[in-house]
Design goal:
The complex is a heterodimer of chains A (171) and B (279). Chain A has 171 residues and is mainly α. The longest helix of chain A has 25 residues. Chain B is of the alpha+beta class and 279 residues long. Chain B contains five helices and twelve strands. Chain B has a six-stranded antiparallel β-barrel with strand order 1-2-5-4-3-12. In chain B, strands 6-7-8-11-10-9 form a six-stranded antiparallel β-barrel. The chains are: A mainly alpha (171), B alpha+beta (279). At the A-B interface, helix 3, helix 4, helix 6 and helix 7 of A face helix 2 and helix 3 of B.
C-alpha cells in the first residue's frame, strides 16, 4: 500500500466525519430521512487491507461518531456490520488475485457494481443503526420506514459525491 | 486443534464480525441503563470543546430571537413584581417562614449541542459539577416549558436527556381538570413539535386547546406550561386514553435553558425508595 493511499484515506476520514458531525447531524426531511454519508469512507477503503485492520478502523470510526451523537455503541455496531457485508460482497464479486484497482470507487469499478455494493452496505448499516437506536419492537414498521427513507437519502448523496469526484482510469 | 485453527483463520471475517459486533451491542445496552461508567459522549473534554467553539456562529445567528424571548420573560417578571408591590401593606400580617430558603432555585445554562433528528436526542449544556449540577435535575426552557433531565455530568459540561428520547417520561396534568398523565415523545411520530400524553383515565373530558402543565409529581415543579391539546382522546381500547399535544417549546431553536435545583430532591427520592414496589 503506497503512502499516498494512506494519506488520502486519512484526509477523507477527517473531511467526511466533519461533514457528518457539523452539517448532516442537523439535517433531515420531516425527521424521517436522516443521511449518514460518513460510511462512504468505509466503502472506499482500499482492497488490500487485512480483515482485522478493517474491523479496527470501522470500530474506531463508529466510536468517534458515537461520541458526537451521544449514542455509545450504536454506530460502532452498525459500522462493523457494514464492514462484514463489504468483505462478503468483495470476496464474492472480485477475484482474489485480480486487484487491478487500489480502491472500490465508482470510476474504478463501474456504476453497476458500485451501486449494488453501496446499496447492500448502506442498508446493512442503517438497519442495525435504527433498530439498535430504537431498541424496541413496538415501533417496528415505523422504524423500518425511517430506515428505508434514510437509506435512500444516504445512497443518493453517496452516488452524488462519487459522481462529483468521478475520474475514470485511462486504460 | 490445528484444523480448528485453519477453520477459524479461513472464516476470520465472520469471527471478527461476531467479536466487534458483540462489543458494540454491549456498549449500547450498557449505555441504556442509568448507571454508567464509560463516558465517550459530549461531556468528554475533546468533544465538548469542539461543540463549544462551533456554537459561536450559531449563537450570533439566533441572537435576535433569543433577545426577544428574554425580553418577553423580563416583562412578565416585572409585572409580577409590580403586582406584589401593590398589595395593601396596611392589611399585611407577619408570617414567619421557617424554611427560609425557596425549594427551587434556577441556574441558567447555554446549549452548546442539540439534536432533534434522532430517535433519542441529547442536549449538551455548558454547566457541570463545578456549578452544582447533578444527574436527574430537571431542565426547562425560558418561559416555554420542559426540556428534559440531566443525564451525565462532567466538571464543566453536562448532557441533558431531552424530552425527545424514548426513556423520558414526565408527569403532566390538564390545567382545567387536573387529569394526570404521562408525557412521552416518539411512538410513530418524529415531529419535534408534537408529543403524546398517555394514561389519562377515560372519564375525564379533555377539549381542544386545553393547556397542559407539569403536575409536580416528577422532579419538575408544578404548573410549568408544556403545550396545548391538538387531538383529544385517541382511543386505546382500555380504560385510559392518549392525547396528542403541540409543545410550546421549539427544540430546534433552543439556545438558553434553566436547570432547576430542587432542595428536597434527595429527601424525596430517599423517602420514596422505602416504599414497597407496586407490583
Amino acid at each position: 500500500m503506497s503512502s499516498r493511499l494512506v494519506l488520502t484515506n486519512i484526509v477523507r476520514w477527517f473531511i467526511l466525519l466533519l461533514f457528518q458531525i457539523l452539517l448532516l447531524r442537523n439535517l433531515s426531511f420531516y425527521n424521517m430521512a436522516t443521511p449518514f454519508v460518513y460510511i462512504l469512507f468505509l466503502l472506499l477503503l482500499p482492497f488490500g487491507i487485512p480483515n482485522l485492520l478493517l474491523y479496527l478502523i470501522a470500530f474506531i470510526t463508529g466510536l468517534t461518531l458515537d461520541a458526537f451523537y451521544d449514542t455509545l455503541g450504536v454506530h460502532t455496531a452498525a459500522c462493523v456490520t457494514l464492514v462484514f457485508v463489504r468483505i462478503l460482497f468483495i470476496s464474492v464479486t472480485v477475484s482474489r488475485d485480480g486487484f487491478d484497482e487500489p480502491e472500490p470507487t465508482l470510476g474504478n469499478m463501474g456504476i453497476k457494481w458500485f451501486l449494488l455494493y453501496a446499496f447492500l452496505c448502506t442498508f446493512a448499516h442503517h438497519i442495525v443503526l435504527f433498530f439498535l437506536e430504537t431498541f424496541r419492537l413496538t415501533e417496528f414498521s415505523y422504524t423500518l420506514l425511517k430506515c428505508a427513507l434514510s437509506g435512500i437519502f444516504t445512497l443518493f448523496l453517496i452516488t452524488l459525491i462519487e459522481f462529483i469526484f468521478y475520474n475514470r482510469k485511462v486504460r | 486443534m490445528r484444523n480448528l485453527w485453519i477453520f477459524i483463520s479461513r472464516y476470520n471475517a465472520f469471527f471478527f464480525f461476531i467479536i466487534f459486533f458483540t462489543i458494540g451491542v454491549v456498549l449500547t445496552v450498557r449505555n441504556n441503563s442509568y448507571q454508567r461508567s464509560v463516558t465517550i459522549n459530549s461531556t468528554n473534554k475533546v468533544v465538548g470543546d469542539v461543540y463549544n467553539n462551533l456554537n459561536v456562529l450559531k449563537k450570533y445567528i439566533n441572537l435576535g430571537s433569543v433577545n426577544d424571548s428574554l425580553a418577553v420573560e423580563n416583562a412578565k417578571l416585572k409585572t409580577e413584581i409590580l403586582a406584589l408591590k401593590n398589595i395593601d401593606t396596611a392589611k399585611d400580617v407577619l408570617v414567619k417562614d421557617t424554611a427560609g430558603v425557596p425549594q427551587y432555585t434556577y441556574l441558567s445554562a447555554r446549549v452548546i449541542k442539540n439534536s432533534i433528528t434522532n430517535r433519542n436526542n441529547f442536549i449538551t449544556i455548558n454547566r457541570g459539577t463545578a456549578d452544582g449540577i447533578e444527574t436527574n435535575m430537571p431542565v426547562i426552557s425560558p418561559g416555554r416549558g420542559v426540556v428534559g433531565f440531566v443525564q451525565d455530568v462532567s466538571d464543566h459540561l453536562a448532557t441533558v436527556r431531552s424530552l425527545l428520547h424514548k426513556d423520558t417520561h414526565i408527569s403532566v396534568s390538564v390545567k382545567r381538570n387536573n387529569a394526570v398523565g404521562s408525557l412521552v415523545w416518539g411512538d410513530r411520530n418524529s415531529d419535534y413539535r408534537k408529543a403524546y400524553i398517555k394514561d389519562i383515565p377515560n372519564h375525564f373530558k379533555v377539549n381542544l386547546k386545553d393547556t397542559i402543565v407539569t403536575s409536580g409529581f416528577s422532579f419538575f415543579p408544578s404548573g410549568i406550561p408544556v403545550g396545548t391539546v391538538s387531538n383529544p382522546g385517541i382511543s386505546t381500547g382500555d380504560n385510559f386514553m392518549t392525547i396528542e399535544i403541540n409543545l410550546f417549546n421549539d427544540f430546534s431553536t433552543l439556545q438558553y435553558v434553566y436547570v432547576i435545583k430542587n432542595k428536597l430532591a434527595k429527601e424525596q427520592t430517599e423517602l420514596e425508595a422505602k416504599l414497597p414496589n407496586e407490583q
